[in-house]
Design goal:
Layout: E1 25-29, H1 33-37, E2 42-48, E3 59-62, E4 65-66, E5 72-76, E6 82-86, E7 89-93, E8 97-105, H2 111-128, E9 133-142, H3 153-165, E10 175-181, E11 187-195, E12 200-202, E13 227-229, E14 235-240, E15 243-244, E16 247-248, H4 254-271, E17 282-288, H5 294-305, E18 310-315, E19 325-331
Parallel strand pairs: 2-3, 9-10, 17-18
Antiparallel strand pairs: 1-5, 2-5, 4-18, 6-7, 7-8, 8-11, 9-11, 12-13, 13-14, 14-19, 15-16, 17-19
Bound molecules: 3-(2-carboxyethyl)benzoic acid (3EB).
Length: 332
């Protein structure tokens, strides 16, 4: 289908006085995907677990099981939204924001590493032809903790990702999430949000920047920013867990890990200059390793949001085995 470059809105390209982008509206909705996908302002519809979604570049199914009601994650922008496919990449865009996704099967020997390298190389080629700034990336694949030491699949993913990225983001990495699925499907799924203006990457003063992690955590440090202040002012928060400095905290204690995770979220939002604390305007995805922890974690998150915001719980595996919970999302 279309491979024309995504056009800027006329008039304000590179104009420093131009207004910032309007915020992307992100919500969890109990809606019929086929009905949502045809709405002109819908940029993305992400369904989890057994969700059945139309064959449309705006729609993506992720094989993470939701806990409780199956909700769709819906992104709305100014619109109208156009869609297309360029080889393995599916995209939708209203000119301000672009949603893109790509899925690569694991079929080689170093399957996850090779899939990550191929995927990021392909993504880099595609992005290189377009005036897009990547704000946020999500990565999902099966059995993230399988394999020991440097053979662990997450570590091989990290090495393949860096090999494929090459100079893609310079030193300004997007915010990101990497979570393991448990669906037995050996394919790497990546989707992301880009904009026609750059955001500002934000680090967390409580945590060492991921690209500085010491060798103990693998041969290739992960490359992502702890959050991205979007050109709308919105804060896009990376997957965040109970890591302080570079060390995992509170082994075997999910309540304490959740507390540390929430402290990290508060800290990164403050560093990003959030006007308000987490609560109203927060939309969070909460990944728990063990379904048995879901109720307790839900309660803890809701308390922290103080009656505002939204949270969706998913069963997902964090990239370090000892970590039981991870949270990502947006604020503002
Ligand atoms: C961490 O803070 C937890 O490899 O891109 C979170 C977000 C994590 C992104 C990545 C990893 C990544 O290190 C794990």
């Amino acid at each position: 289908m279309s491979s024309e470059p995504l056009l800027d809105r006329p008039g304000d390209r590179d104009d420093p006085n131009a207004p910032t982008l309007t915020p992307l509206r992100i919500a969890f909705e109990p809606a019929d995907p086929a009905a949502v996908a045809v709405q002109a302002d819908v940029l993305a519809v992400i369904g989890f677990g057994a969700a059945a979604l139309p064959d449309d570049p705006r729609c993506l199914r992720v094989g993470l099981e939701p806990v409780g009601a199956a909700l769709l994650e819906v992104w709305r922008s100014r619109g109208p939204v156009r869609t297309g496919r360029d080889g393995e990449i599916r995209w939708s865009s209203d000119g301000d924001y672009t949603f893109f996704s790509i899925e690569v099967p694991e079929d080689a020997v170093d399957a996850i590493g090779a899939a990550a390298e191929h995927l990021y190389r392909r993504l880099g080629e595609w992005l290189g032809q377009r005036p897009l700034h990547v704000l946020r990336l999500w990565n999902y694949f099966d059995a993230i903790n399988e394999g020991d030491g440097d053979a662990e699949r997450y570590r091989r993913f990290c090495t393949g990702r860096v090999a494929g990225m090459q100079g893609l983001f310079g030193g300004d990495y997007p915010a990101a999430t990497v979570i393991g699925r448990k669906d037995g499907v050996r394919s790497l799924q990546v989707y992301g949000l880009a904009a026609r203006r750059a955001g500002r990457p934000v680090e967390n003063p409580r945590q060492l920047s991921a690209w500085r992690y010491p060798r103990d955590y693998g041969p290739t440090a992960p490359r992502f920013a702890r959050a991205m202040r979007a050109p709308s002012g919105q804060i896009l928060i990376s997957g965040t867990a109970a890591i302080v400095g570079h060390a995992s905290r509170h082994r075997d204690d999910v309540a304490a890990q959740l507390g540390e995770t929430l402290a990290n979220l508060d800290s990164v939002c403050a560093a990003a200059g959030a006007a308000t604390p987490l609560g109203e305007g927060s939309v969070l995805k909460v990944y728990v390793r063990r379904e048995a922890d879901a109720e307790q974690v839900t309660r803890g998150v809701r308390d922290h949001l103080a009656g505002g915001g939204e949270a969706m719980l998913l069963i997902g595996e964090v990239c370090r085995r000892e970590l039981l919970v991870e949270i990502d999302g947006s604020h503002g």
